[in-house]
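Lecture notes, unit on protein representations.

Consider one protein chain, 191 amino acids long.
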Amino acid sequence: GSYRILSWSSSVDSETGIRYGCATDITERKLTENKFRLAEDKYHAMFETSQVGMALCKMDGSLIEVNQGYLDIIGYSNEEALKLSYWDITPKEYETQEAKQLQLMNDTGRYGPYEKEYIHKDGTHIPVLLNGSVVKGTADEKYIWSTVHNITELKRADERLSFQASHDSLTGLVNRREFERRTERLLSTVI
């Protein structure tokens, strides 16, 4: 045997006094509800604990829901962040790139991955890698679901490697390869 979950309803016939009942097997519905509840709990746990920034915003860019990873990148509290749009934290020099990504999202339902910067609450610019897609809400409203990676350390490592590739490790001066590259570039502008 197996257990079943039943929904029971009954009524009494006022003339005869006989009680009539109906049982409906709701086992599958309850199992499905439990699966959805578990999936939602997993989603919320992932959302809340992820170091990757996650944001849900309206199509106009106003933020609706953000996780701690996102807040860490921009430096605002949750209450402050939900009063912002991504336009408020995007430097002006990225407007053209943003327009291209929005067009891509309108055409395909997705955008990115692409790099840009966010303006931190303290005014510093934070390099980020964004990726996202359009999701539908309850009344067929469209939203933008984004993941945001802080790539500050990756950029610093890239700068260190670039410096090491073009400078002598003992003196810190440009190495022969870099010296020749700079000389060729300078000569090409003169000639």
